[in-house]
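Section handout 9: paired folding examples.
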Amino acid sequence: MKIIILGAGQVGSTVAESMVSEANDITIVDTDGDRLRQLADHLDLRTVEGNAAHPSILRAAGAEDADLLVAVTQSDQANLVACKLASTVFNIPTRIARIRSADYLGHPEVFSPGNFSVDVTICPEQIMTDYITRLIEFPESLQVLDFANGRLQMVAVRAFTGGPLVGRPLSEIRDHIPDVDSRVAAIFRGEAPLIPTGDTVIQHGDEVFFLAAREHIRTVLRELRRADQPVRRVMIAGGGNIGSRLAASLESKYQVKLIEVHKRAAERLSQELDRTLVLCGDSTDEELLSDEHVGEMDVFCALTNDDENNIMSSLLAKRMGAHRVITLINRAAYVDLVHGGQIDIALSPATVTIGSLLTHVRRGDCVAVHSLRRGAAEALEIIAHGDPRSSKVVGRTVDSIGLPKGATIAAIVRRRDALPDDEIACAIGMDDEVIIAHHDTVIQRNDHVIVFAVSKDLVPKIEKLFAVGVGFF
Protein backbone atom coordinates (compact mmCIF):
# COMPACT_ATOMS: atom_id res chain seq x y z
CA MET A 1 0.00 0.00 0.00
CA LYS A 2 1.30 3.46 -0.89
CA ILE A 3 0.76 5.77 2.08
CA ILE A 4 1.46 9.49 2.53
CA ILE A 5 1.79 10.72 6.10
CA LEU A 6 1.53 14.46 6.68
CA GLY A 7 3.25 15.52 9.89
CA ALA A 8 6.43 14.04 11.40
CA GLY A 9 5.54 14.72 15.02
CA GLN A 10 5.04 12.06 17.67
CA VAL A 11 1.87 10.65 16.12
CA GLY A 12 3.11 10.81 12.53
CA SER A 13 6.48 9.22 13.28
CA THR A 14 4.86 6.43 15.32
CA VAL A 15 2.44 5.72 12.47
CA ALA A 16 5.33 5.69 10.01
CA GLU A 17 7.39 3.33 12.16
CA SER A 18 4.50 0.92 12.55
CA MET A 19 3.47 0.92 8.89
CA VAL A 20 6.91 0.88 7.28
CA SER A 21 7.74 -2.40 9.02
CA GLU A 22 4.85 -4.04 7.19
CA ALA A 23 6.23 -3.56 3.66
CA ASN A 24 4.20 -0.43 2.90
CA ASP A 25 5.56 2.31 0.63
CA ILE A 26 5.69 5.30 3.00
CA THR A 27 6.31 8.98 2.28
CA ILE A 28 6.27 11.45 5.16
CA VAL A 29 5.88 15.22 4.76
CA ASP A 30 6.85 17.93 7.24
CA THR A 31 8.28 21.45 7.36
CA ASP A 32 11.02 20.35 9.80
CA GLY A 33 13.90 19.12 7.66
CA ASP A 34 16.00 18.00 10.65
CA ARG A 35 13.17 15.84 11.95
CA LEU A 36 12.71 14.28 8.50
CA ARG A 37 16.41 13.47 8.23
CA GLN A 38 16.31 11.75 11.63
CA LEU A 39 13.41 9.57 10.47
CA ALA A 40 15.06 8.77 7.15
CA ASP A 41 18.22 7.66 8.97
CA HIS A 42 16.50 4.79 10.76
CA LEU A 43 13.36 4.05 8.72
CA ASP A 44 13.02 2.88 5.13
CA LEU A 45 10.82 5.70 3.83
CA ARG A 46 10.81 8.77 1.59
CA THR A 47 10.64 12.28 3.00
CA VAL A 48 9.42 15.53 1.48
CA GLU A 49 10.07 18.87 3.17
CA GLY A 50 7.34 21.47 2.77
CA ASN A 51 3.83 22.60 3.63
CA ALA A 52 1.47 19.62 3.64
CA ALA A 53 -1.46 21.77 2.46
CA HIS A 54 0.24 22.79 -0.81
CA PRO A 55 -0.67 20.84 -3.99
CA SER A 56 2.92 20.91 -5.26
CA ILE A 57 4.17 19.29 -2.05
CA LEU A 58 1.49 16.59 -2.19
CA ARG A 59 2.41 15.92 -5.82
CA ALA A 60 6.08 15.63 -4.88
CA ALA A 61 5.07 13.12 -2.19
CA GLY A 62 3.43 10.92 -4.82
CA ALA A 63 -0.21 11.82 -4.25
CA GLU A 64 -1.17 11.02 -7.85
CA ASP A 65 -0.96 7.26 -7.21
CA ALA A 66 -1.28 7.03 -3.40
CA ASP A 67 -3.74 4.66 -1.71
CA LEU A 68 -4.03 6.41 1.66
CA LEU A 69 -3.44 9.89 3.06
CA VAL A 70 -2.91 10.27 6.82
CA ALA A 71 -2.97 13.97 7.76
CA VAL A 72 -1.69 14.28 11.34
CA THR A 73 0.01 17.69 11.42
CA GLN A 74 -0.48 19.97 14.42
CA SER A 75 -2.85 22.17 12.36
CA ASP A 76 -6.48 21.12 11.90
CA GLN A 77 -6.78 23.54 9.01
CA ALA A 78 -3.78 22.08 7.18
CA ASN A 79 -5.15 18.57 7.68
CA LEU A 80 -8.56 19.55 6.31
CA VAL A 81 -7.15 21.34 3.26
CA ALA A 82 -4.83 18.43 2.52
CA CYS A 83 -7.75 15.97 2.60
CA LYS A 84 -9.77 18.18 0.26
CA LEU A 85 -6.86 18.38 -2.19
CA ALA A 86 -6.27 14.65 -1.90
CA SER A 87 -9.89 14.05 -2.93
CA THR A 88 -10.50 16.64 -5.62
CA VAL A 89 -7.06 17.01 -7.20
CA PHE A 90 -5.40 13.64 -6.66
CA ASN A 91 -8.32 11.24 -6.12
CA ILE A 92 -6.66 9.43 -3.20
CA PRO A 93 -9.20 6.74 -2.17
CA THR A 94 -8.93 7.01 1.65
CA ARG A 95 -8.25 10.17 3.65
CA ILE A 96 -7.72 10.30 7.42
CA ALA A 97 -7.39 13.58 9.33
CA ARG A 98 -6.30 14.37 12.86
CA ILE A 99 -8.75 16.93 14.26
CA ARG A 100 -8.16 18.46 17.69
CA SER A 101 -10.78 21.20 17.80
CA ALA A 102 -14.05 20.26 19.48
CA ASP A 103 -15.70 22.95 17.36
CA TYR A 104 -14.94 21.03 14.17
CA LEU A 105 -15.81 17.68 15.72
CA GLY A 106 -19.18 19.06 16.79
CA HIS A 107 -20.10 19.71 13.16
CA PRO A 108 -19.65 16.42 11.29
CA GLU A 109 -20.97 17.96 8.07
CA VAL A 110 -17.59 19.72 7.78
CA PHE A 111 -16.03 16.37 6.84
CA SER A 112 -18.60 15.34 4.20
CA PRO A 113 -17.60 14.73 0.54
CA GLY A 114 -19.11 18.08 -0.43
CA ASN A 115 -16.91 19.92 2.04
CA PHE A 116 -13.47 18.71 3.18
CA SER A 117 -13.84 15.06 2.06
CA VAL A 118 -12.46 13.41 5.20
CA ASP A 119 -13.26 9.70 5.39
CA VAL A 120 -12.07 9.20 8.97
CA THR A 121 -11.38 11.72 11.73
CA ILE A 122 -9.22 10.90 14.72
CA CYS A 123 -8.79 13.03 17.82
CA PRO A 124 -5.81 11.72 19.83
CA GLU A 125 -6.81 13.83 22.82
CA GLN A 126 -10.28 12.28 22.94
CA ILE A 127 -8.87 8.78 22.41
CA MET A 128 -6.52 9.35 25.35
CA THR A 129 -9.36 10.71 27.48
CA ASP A 130 -11.52 7.65 26.83
CA TYR A 131 -8.56 5.36 27.47
CA ILE A 132 -7.71 6.92 30.84
CA THR A 133 -11.40 6.98 31.83
CA ARG A 134 -11.56 3.20 31.37
CA LEU A 135 -8.41 2.75 33.47
CA ILE A 136 -10.03 4.75 36.27
CA GLU A 137 -13.23 2.74 35.95
CA PHE A 138 -11.21 -0.47 36.43
CA PRO A 139 -8.38 0.65 38.75
CA GLU A 140 -6.80 -2.82 38.95
CA SER A 141 -6.17 -2.90 35.20
CA LEU A 142 -3.15 -2.01 33.04
CA GLN A 143 -5.16 -1.69 29.83
CA VAL A 144 -8.88 -1.84 28.97
CA LEU A 145 -9.97 -2.22 25.33
CA ASP A 146 -13.41 -2.24 23.74
CA PHE A 147 -14.56 -4.56 20.96
CA ALA A 148 -17.86 -4.98 19.13
CA ASN A 149 -19.20 -1.55 20.10
CA GLY A 150 -18.41 -2.22 23.76
CA ARG A 151 -20.08 -5.63 24.01
CA LEU A 152 -16.71 -7.23 24.75
CA GLN A 153 -13.72 -5.91 26.66
CA MET A 154 -10.14 -7.11 26.81
CA VAL A 155 -8.36 -6.28 30.05
CA ALA A 156 -4.69 -6.56 30.97
CA VAL A 157 -4.03 -7.06 34.67
CA ARG A 158 -1.00 -7.82 36.84
CA ALA A 159 -1.68 -11.01 38.81
CA PHE A 160 -0.85 -10.78 42.51
CA THR A 161 -0.73 -13.32 45.31
CA GLY A 162 -4.13 -13.36 46.96
CA GLY A 163 -6.16 -13.70 43.78
CA PRO A 164 -8.13 -16.99 43.83
CA LEU A 165 -6.63 -18.15 40.51
CA VAL A 166 -3.03 -17.13 41.16
CA GLY A 167 -0.94 -20.28 41.61
CA ARG A 168 -3.62 -22.44 40.04
CA PRO A 169 -4.18 -23.79 36.51
CA LEU A 170 -6.47 -21.91 34.14
CA SER A 171 -8.72 -24.98 33.87
CA GLU A 172 -10.08 -24.08 37.32
CA ILE A 173 -11.47 -20.72 36.22
CA ARG A 174 -14.77 -22.38 35.27
CA ASP A 175 -15.06 -23.89 38.78
CA HIS A 176 -14.51 -20.50 40.43
CA ILE A 177 -16.96 -18.55 38.26
CA PRO A 178 -19.29 -21.14 36.68
CA ASP A 179 -21.78 -18.57 35.41
CA VAL A 180 -19.20 -16.44 33.58
CA ASP A 181 -17.55 -17.36 30.28
CA SER A 182 -14.16 -15.73 29.76
CA ARG A 183 -10.94 -16.42 27.89
CA VAL A 184 -7.33 -15.76 28.83
CA ALA A 185 -5.90 -14.75 25.46
CA ALA A 186 -2.24 -14.46 26.51
CA ILE A 187 0.09 -14.25 29.48
CA PHE A 188 3.35 -12.32 29.55
CA ARG A 189 5.87 -13.52 32.12
CA GLY A 190 8.50 -10.82 32.16
CA GLU A 191 8.91 -10.06 28.46
CA ALA A 192 8.21 -13.64 27.33
CA PRO A 193 4.72 -14.42 25.97
CA LEU A 194 2.94 -17.62 26.95
CA ILE A 195 0.11 -19.13 24.92
CA PRO A 196 -2.20 -20.33 27.69
CA THR A 197 -3.66 -23.82 27.94
CA GLY A 198 -5.82 -25.37 30.63
CA ASP A 199 -2.68 -26.54 32.44
CA THR A 200 -1.03 -23.09 32.48
CA VAL A 201 -0.52 -21.88 36.05
CA ILE A 202 -0.79 -18.12 36.64
CA GLN A 203 2.11 -16.82 38.72
CA HIS A 204 2.51 -13.71 40.83
CA GLY A 205 3.57 -10.82 38.58
CA ASP A 206 2.22 -12.28 35.35
CA GLU A 207 0.60 -9.80 32.96
CA VAL A 208 -2.64 -11.52 32.00
CA PHE A 209 -4.82 -10.52 29.03
CA PHE A 210 -8.35 -11.80 29.32
CA LEU A 211 -11.53 -11.14 27.40
CA ALA A 212 -15.14 -11.30 28.58
CA ALA A 213 -18.50 -9.64 28.06
CA ARG A 214 -18.44 -6.11 29.49
CA GLU A 215 -20.78 -6.98 32.36
CA HIS A 216 -18.47 -9.80 33.55
CA ILE A 217 -15.15 -7.93 33.63
CA ARG A 218 -15.19 -7.15 37.37
CA THR A 219 -15.99 -10.76 38.24
CA VAL A 220 -12.99 -12.06 36.30
CA LEU A 221 -10.72 -9.33 37.70
CA ARG A 222 -11.45 -10.54 41.23
CA GLU A 223 -10.08 -13.97 40.30
CA LEU A 224 -6.66 -12.57 39.44
CA ARG A 225 -6.01 -10.06 42.24
CA ARG A 226 -7.54 -8.47 45.27
CA ALA A 227 -10.03 -5.83 44.21
CA ASP A 228 -8.88 -2.25 44.72
CA GLN A 229 -11.15 0.18 46.51
CA PRO A 230 -13.49 1.95 44.06
CA VAL A 231 -12.10 5.27 42.87
CA ARG A 232 -13.65 8.34 44.48
CA ARG A 233 -10.94 11.05 44.35
CA VAL A 234 -8.89 11.98 41.28
CA MET A 235 -6.21 14.64 40.91
CA ILE A 236 -5.17 15.80 37.42
CA ALA A 237 -1.92 17.68 36.74
CA GLY A 238 -2.25 19.72 33.56
CA GLY A 239 -5.27 21.52 32.12
CA GLY A 240 -4.43 21.13 28.44
CA ASN A 241 -6.51 19.32 25.83
CA ILE A 242 -6.32 15.94 27.57
CA GLY A 243 -6.46 17.13 31.17
CA SER A 244 -9.48 19.39 30.62
CA ARG A 245 -11.34 16.71 28.63
CA LEU A 246 -10.65 14.15 31.34
CA ALA A 247 -11.87 16.45 34.11
CA ALA A 248 -15.09 17.12 32.18
CA SER A 249 -15.55 13.38 31.65
CA LEU A 250 -14.98 12.46 35.32
CA GLU A 251 -16.46 15.30 37.37
CA SER A 252 -20.01 13.94 37.44
CA LYS A 253 -18.84 10.64 39.01
CA TYR A 254 -15.75 11.50 41.03
CA GLN A 255 -14.28 14.24 43.21
CA VAL A 256 -11.83 15.91 40.82
CA LYS A 257 -9.03 18.40 41.44
CA LEU A 258 -7.10 19.88 38.51
CA ILE A 259 -3.75 21.70 38.78
CA GLU A 260 -2.89 24.16 35.98
CA VAL A 261 0.32 26.21 36.06
CA HIS A 262 -0.88 29.09 33.85
CA LYS A 263 -3.20 31.55 35.57
CA ARG A 264 -5.31 32.49 32.54
CA ALA A 265 -5.86 28.86 31.60
CA ALA A 266 -6.79 28.04 35.20
CA GLU A 267 -9.33 30.88 35.26
CA ARG A 268 -10.84 29.70 31.96
CA LEU A 269 -11.07 26.10 33.16
CA SER A 270 -12.72 27.15 36.42
CA GLN A 271 -15.52 28.69 34.34
CA GLU A 272 -15.82 25.81 31.85
CA LEU A 273 -15.84 22.96 34.38
CA ASP A 274 -18.86 22.53 36.63
CA ARG A 275 -17.73 20.48 39.62
CA THR A 276 -13.95 20.29 39.29
CA LEU A 277 -11.82 22.23 41.76
CA VAL A 278 -9.27 24.09 39.61
CA LEU A 279 -5.99 25.09 41.27
CA CYS A 280 -3.35 27.40 39.85
CA GLY A 281 0.11 26.09 40.62
CA ASP A 282 3.01 23.81 39.74
CA SER A 283 2.26 20.09 39.95
CA THR A 284 5.87 19.41 41.00
CA ASP A 285 5.46 21.69 44.04
CA GLU A 286 5.59 19.33 47.01
CA GLU A 287 3.98 21.90 49.32
CA LEU A 288 1.02 22.38 46.97
CA LEU A 289 0.51 18.62 46.64
CA SER A 290 0.63 18.27 50.42
CA ASP A 291 -1.84 21.13 50.97
CA GLU A 292 -4.26 19.52 48.52
CA HIS A 293 -3.97 16.11 50.23
CA VAL A 294 -2.47 14.21 47.30
CA GLY A 295 -1.89 11.29 49.68
CA GLU A 296 -5.66 10.77 49.86
CA MET A 297 -6.07 10.53 46.08
CA ASP A 298 -7.17 7.23 44.60
CA VAL A 299 -5.70 8.22 41.21
CA PHE A 300 -3.17 10.90 40.27
CA CYS A 301 -2.95 11.67 36.52
CA ALA A 302 0.05 13.66 35.23
CA LEU A 303 -1.07 15.01 31.84
CA THR A 304 1.01 18.12 31.12
CA ASN A 305 2.99 18.57 27.89
CA ASP A 306 6.30 18.18 29.72
CA ASP A 307 7.51 14.57 30.16
CA GLU A 308 9.98 15.40 32.91
CA ASN A 309 7.38 17.32 34.93
CA ASN A 310 4.91 14.47 34.51
CA ILE A 311 7.44 11.94 35.77
CA MET A 312 8.54 14.08 38.71
CA SER A 313 5.03 15.00 39.83
CA SER A 314 3.96 11.34 39.57
CA LEU A 315 6.91 10.14 41.65
CA LEU A 316 6.17 12.85 44.23
CA ALA A 317 2.48 11.96 44.36
CA LYS A 318 3.27 8.26 44.76
CA ARG A 319 5.81 8.92 47.50
CA MET A 320 3.28 11.11 49.32
CA GLY A 321 0.67 8.37 49.33
CA ALA A 322 -1.40 8.55 46.12
CA HIS A 323 -2.74 5.06 45.56
CA ARG A 324 -2.28 4.89 41.79
CA VAL A 325 -0.46 7.16 39.35
CA ILE A 326 -0.99 7.43 35.58
CA THR A 327 1.63 9.36 33.64
CA LEU A 328 1.52 10.77 30.12
CA ILE A 329 4.90 10.47 28.38
CA ASN A 330 5.55 11.40 24.76
CA ARG A 331 9.04 9.93 24.42
CA ALA A 332 8.73 6.17 23.92
CA ALA A 333 12.11 5.47 25.57
CA TYR A 334 10.87 7.08 28.78
CA VAL A 335 7.71 4.96 28.78
CA ASP A 336 9.67 1.70 28.89
CA LEU A 337 11.92 3.05 31.63
CA VAL A 338 9.23 4.04 34.11
CA HIS A 339 6.19 1.83 33.35
CA GLY A 340 5.37 -0.64 36.11
CA GLY A 341 7.87 0.75 38.65
CA GLN A 342 6.85 3.45 41.10
CA ILE A 343 4.69 4.80 38.28
CA ASP A 344 1.82 2.36 37.86
CA ILE A 345 0.92 3.16 34.24
CA ALA A 346 2.95 5.18 31.72
CA LEU A 347 1.05 6.11 28.57
CA SER A 348 2.34 7.21 25.19
CA PRO A 349 -0.31 9.19 23.25
CA ALA A 350 1.07 8.00 19.93
CA THR A 351 0.94 4.32 20.96
CA VAL A 352 -2.62 4.63 22.26
CA THR A 353 -3.72 6.43 19.09
CA ILE A 354 -2.05 4.12 16.57
CA GLY A 355 -4.82 1.50 16.72
CA SER A 356 -7.36 3.95 15.31
CA LEU A 357 -5.12 4.39 12.26
CA LEU A 358 -4.12 0.75 11.86
CA THR A 359 -7.78 -0.19 11.53
CA HIS A 360 -7.78 1.49 8.11
CA VAL A 361 -4.45 0.05 6.99
CA ARG A 362 -4.93 -3.59 7.89
CA ARG A 363 -5.91 -5.82 4.99
CA GLY A 364 -9.23 -7.61 5.32
CA ASP A 365 -12.33 -6.21 6.99
CA CYS A 366 -10.91 -4.91 10.28
CA VAL A 367 -13.37 -3.14 12.56
CA ALA A 368 -10.89 -2.42 15.36
CA VAL A 369 -7.16 -2.73 15.99
CA HIS A 370 -5.59 -2.22 19.40
CA SER A 371 -1.88 -1.91 20.06
CA LEU A 372 -0.82 -3.76 23.20
CA ARG A 373 2.24 -3.78 25.44
CA ARG A 374 3.49 -0.50 24.01
CA GLY A 375 3.24 -1.68 20.41
CA ALA A 376 4.71 -5.18 20.74
CA ALA A 377 1.42 -7.08 20.42
CA GLU A 378 -1.95 -6.48 18.76
CA ALA A 379 -5.59 -7.39 19.16
CA LEU A 380 -7.82 -7.26 16.09
CA GLU A 381 -11.56 -7.41 15.47
CA ILE A 382 -12.00 -8.91 12.00
CA ILE A 383 -15.24 -9.73 10.18
CA ALA A 384 -15.23 -13.21 8.64
CA HIS A 385 -16.48 -13.11 5.05
CA GLY A 386 -17.06 -15.75 2.42
CA ASP A 387 -18.21 -19.36 2.65
CA PRO A 388 -16.49 -22.69 3.39
CA ARG A 389 -15.21 -22.88 -0.21
CA SER A 390 -13.74 -19.38 -0.45
CA SER A 391 -12.69 -18.77 3.18
CA LYS A 392 -10.08 -20.46 5.36
CA VAL A 393 -12.04 -19.64 8.53
CA VAL A 394 -15.79 -19.69 7.76
CA GLY A 395 -17.41 -23.04 8.56
CA ARG A 396 -14.34 -24.26 10.45
CA THR A 397 -13.70 -24.92 14.13
CA VAL A 398 -11.15 -22.76 15.91
CA ASP A 399 -8.67 -25.64 16.34
CA SER A 400 -8.80 -26.53 12.62
CA ILE A 401 -8.14 -23.04 11.26
CA GLY A 402 -4.36 -23.22 11.44
CA LEU A 403 -3.58 -19.96 13.21
CA PRO A 404 0.10 -19.02 13.32
CA LYS A 405 1.81 -19.87 16.60
CA GLY A 406 1.32 -16.95 18.97
CA ALA A 407 -2.15 -16.02 17.66
CA THR A 408 -5.36 -16.83 19.51
CA ILE A 409 -9.03 -16.50 18.59
CA ALA A 410 -10.44 -15.27 21.88
CA ALA A 411 -14.10 -14.49 21.17
CA ILE A 412 -16.81 -13.97 18.58
CA VAL A 413 -19.77 -11.62 18.40
CA ARG A 414 -22.57 -12.97 16.21
CA ARG A 415 -25.65 -11.21 14.87
CA ARG A 416 -28.92 -12.78 16.01
CA ASP A 417 -30.54 -11.80 12.72
CA ALA A 418 -29.08 -11.83 9.22
CA LEU A 419 -27.92 -8.58 7.63
CA PRO A 420 -26.43 -7.79 4.22
CA ASP A 421 -22.61 -7.75 4.09
CA ASP A 422 -22.45 -3.98 3.57
CA GLU A 423 -24.35 -3.34 6.82
CA ILE A 424 -22.68 -5.85 9.12
CA ALA A 425 -19.62 -3.80 10.15
CA CYS A 426 -21.53 -1.24 12.18
CA ALA A 427 -24.51 -3.39 13.07
CA ILE A 428 -23.36 -5.06 16.30
CA GLY A 429 -25.85 -4.23 19.03
CA MET A 430 -26.66 -5.09 22.62
CA ASP A 431 -28.93 -7.99 21.63
CA ASP A 432 -26.27 -9.86 19.69
CA GLU A 433 -24.61 -13.03 20.93
CA VAL A 434 -21.20 -12.92 22.65
CA ILE A 435 -19.37 -16.24 22.26
CA ILE A 436 -16.13 -16.93 24.10
CA ALA A 437 -14.16 -19.07 21.66
CA HIS A 438 -13.20 -22.66 22.51
CA HIS A 439 -11.46 -25.28 20.39
CA ASP A 440 -14.73 -26.57 18.89
CA THR A 441 -16.36 -23.18 18.22
CA VAL A 442 -17.33 -22.88 14.54
CA ILE A 443 -16.79 -19.53 12.78
CA GLN A 444 -19.79 -18.39 10.76
CA ARG A 445 -20.06 -15.88 7.95
CA ASN A 446 -20.17 -12.26 9.18
CA ASP A 447 -18.95 -13.15 12.68
CA HIS A 448 -16.88 -10.45 14.38
CA VAL A 449 -13.79 -12.44 15.40
CA ILE A 450 -11.44 -11.15 18.12
CA VAL A 451 -7.87 -12.29 17.45
CA PHE A 452 -4.92 -11.74 19.82
CA ALA A 453 -1.36 -11.76 18.42
CA VAL A 454 1.55 -11.82 20.88
CA SER A 455 3.69 -10.14 18.21
CA LYS A 456 2.61 -7.68 15.54
CA ASP A 457 4.82 -9.64 13.13
CA LEU A 458 2.04 -12.27 13.06
CA VAL A 459 -0.54 -9.82 11.72
CA PRO A 460 0.17 -10.33 7.96
CA LYS A 461 -0.36 -14.09 8.42
CA ILE A 462 -3.64 -13.47 10.22
CA GLU A 463 -4.79 -11.07 7.49
CA LYS A 464 -3.98 -13.67 4.83
CA LEU A 465 -5.92 -16.30 6.77
CA PHE A 466 -9.07 -14.12 6.80
CA ALA A 467 -8.74 -13.10 3.15
CA VAL A 468 -11.53 -14.31 0.85
CA GLY A 469 -10.64 -16.22 -2.30
CA VAL A 470 -11.46 -14.58 -5.64
CA GLY A 471 -13.95 -17.35 -6.34
CA PHE A 472 -16.29 -15.86 -3.75
CA PHE A 473 -16.78 -12.76 -5.88
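Moving on to protein 2 of 2.
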Amino acid sequence: MNTTSQGALAEEQAARYLEQKGYEVLAQNFRAAGGEIDLVVYQKNTLVFVEVKQRAYDAFGGPVGAVTPTKQKRIAKAATQFVKAHPRLKYEQIRFDVVAILPEKWEHIESAFFPPRTTL
Protein backbone atom coordinates (compact mmCIF):
# COMPACT_ATOMS: atom_id res chain seq x y z
CA MET A 1 0.00 0.00 0.00
CA ASN A 2 1.50 3.39 -0.97
CA THR A 3 1.65 6.38 1.37
CA THR A 4 -1.30 8.12 -0.29
CA SER A 5 -3.50 5.06 0.25
CA GLN A 6 -2.23 4.66 3.81
CA GLY A 7 -3.00 8.31 4.53
CA ALA A 8 -6.52 8.04 3.12
CA LEU A 9 -7.16 4.93 5.20
CA ALA A 10 -5.81 6.63 8.34
CA GLU A 11 -8.07 9.65 7.75
CA GLU A 12 -11.11 7.42 7.26
CA GLN A 13 -10.29 5.50 10.45
CA ALA A 14 -9.75 8.77 12.33
CA ALA A 15 -13.15 10.02 11.15
CA ARG A 16 -14.83 6.87 12.50
CA TYR A 17 -12.82 7.14 15.74
CA LEU A 18 -13.99 10.73 16.27
CA GLU A 19 -17.60 9.79 15.46
CA GLN A 20 -17.42 7.16 18.19
CA LYS A 21 -16.28 9.94 20.55
CA GLY A 22 -19.40 11.94 19.67
CA TYR A 23 -18.09 14.25 16.96
CA GLU A 24 -20.02 14.98 13.78
CA VAL A 25 -17.84 14.80 10.68
CA LEU A 26 -18.59 17.81 8.46
CA ALA A 27 -15.87 17.38 5.83
CA GLN A 28 -12.92 15.22 4.85
CA ASN A 29 -9.97 16.44 2.80
CA PHE A 30 -11.14 20.02 2.49
CA ARG A 31 -8.83 21.72 0.01
CA ALA A 32 -8.33 25.45 -0.27
CA ALA A 33 -5.74 27.75 -1.78
CA GLY A 34 -2.55 27.16 0.14
CA GLY A 35 -3.70 24.34 2.39
CA GLU A 36 -5.76 21.28 3.18
CA ILE A 37 -7.64 20.06 6.21
CA ASP A 38 -7.87 16.32 6.79
CA LEU A 39 -11.08 16.44 8.85
CA VAL A 40 -13.51 19.11 9.91
CA VAL A 41 -15.65 17.96 12.82
CA TYR A 42 -18.16 19.52 15.19
CA GLN A 43 -19.02 18.87 18.82
CA LYS A 44 -20.67 20.96 21.54
CA ASN A 45 -20.64 24.27 19.63
CA THR A 46 -16.99 23.79 18.71
CA LEU A 47 -15.75 23.65 15.15
CA VAL A 48 -12.63 21.48 15.07
CA PHE A 49 -10.04 21.27 12.32
CA VAL A 50 -8.16 17.99 12.60
CA GLU A 51 -4.79 17.02 11.17
CA VAL A 52 -4.33 13.25 10.96
CA LYS A 53 -0.72 12.09 11.14
CA GLN A 54 0.35 8.48 10.90
CA ARG A 55 3.90 7.31 11.43
CA ALA A 56 5.56 3.92 11.67
CA TYR A 57 7.61 4.97 14.70
CA ASP A 58 7.80 7.70 17.31
CA ALA A 59 11.32 8.97 16.53
CA PHE A 60 11.96 12.59 15.51
CA GLY A 61 8.85 13.83 17.27
CA GLY A 62 6.56 11.15 15.84
CA PRO A 63 3.25 12.10 14.28
CA VAL A 64 2.81 15.25 16.36
CA GLY A 65 6.27 16.53 15.49
CA ALA A 66 5.31 16.28 11.82
CA VAL A 67 2.76 19.05 12.30
CA THR A 68 5.32 21.79 11.83
CA PRO A 69 4.67 25.54 12.19
CA THR A 70 4.53 25.76 8.38
CA LYS A 71 1.94 22.98 8.27
CA GLN A 72 -0.03 24.68 11.06
CA LYS A 73 -0.12 27.91 9.07
CA ARG A 74 -1.40 26.09 5.97
CA ILE A 75 -4.11 24.36 8.00
CA ALA A 76 -5.15 27.69 9.51
CA LYS A 77 -5.38 29.30 6.05
CA ALA A 78 -7.55 26.45 4.84
CA ALA A 79 -9.67 26.75 8.01
CA THR A 80 -10.29 30.42 7.19
CA GLN A 81 -11.47 29.41 3.73
CA PHE A 82 -13.73 26.70 5.19
CA VAL A 83 -15.37 29.20 7.55
CA LYS A 84 -15.89 31.67 4.68
CA ALA A 85 -17.36 28.91 2.50
CA HIS A 86 -19.86 27.90 5.22
CA PRO A 87 -21.30 31.18 6.57
CA ARG A 88 -24.42 29.50 7.99
CA LEU A 89 -22.43 27.15 10.20
CA LYS A 90 -22.99 28.03 13.86
CA TYR A 91 -20.24 27.58 16.44
CA GLU A 92 -18.87 29.32 19.50
CA GLN A 93 -15.27 28.14 19.36
CA ILE A 94 -12.68 26.96 16.86
CA ARG A 95 -10.02 24.44 17.77
CA PHE A 96 -7.12 22.72 16.02
CA ASP A 97 -6.58 19.07 16.97
CA VAL A 98 -4.24 16.31 15.89
CA VAL A 99 -5.02 12.60 15.70
CA ALA A 100 -1.62 10.92 16.02
CA ILE A 101 -1.45 7.33 14.84
CA LEU A 102 1.34 4.92 15.62
CA PRO A 103 1.14 1.15 14.96
CA GLU A 104 0.07 0.35 18.52
CA LYS A 105 -1.22 3.71 19.73
CA TRP A 106 -3.86 6.28 18.79
CA GLU A 107 -3.96 9.67 20.43
CA HIS A 108 -6.46 12.50 19.95
CA ILE A 109 -4.78 15.72 21.05
CA GLU A 110 -7.27 18.51 21.57
CA SER A 111 -6.00 22.08 21.07
CA ALA A 112 -2.78 20.64 19.68
CA PHE A 113 -1.74 24.00 18.26
CA PHE A 114 -2.79 27.61 18.07
CA PRO A 115 -2.09 29.31 14.74
CA PRO A 116 -1.00 32.95 14.69
CA ARG A 117 -3.93 35.37 14.90
CA THR A 118 -2.94 36.92 11.60
CA THR A 119 -3.81 33.63 9.93
CA LEU A 120 -7.44 33.47 11.02
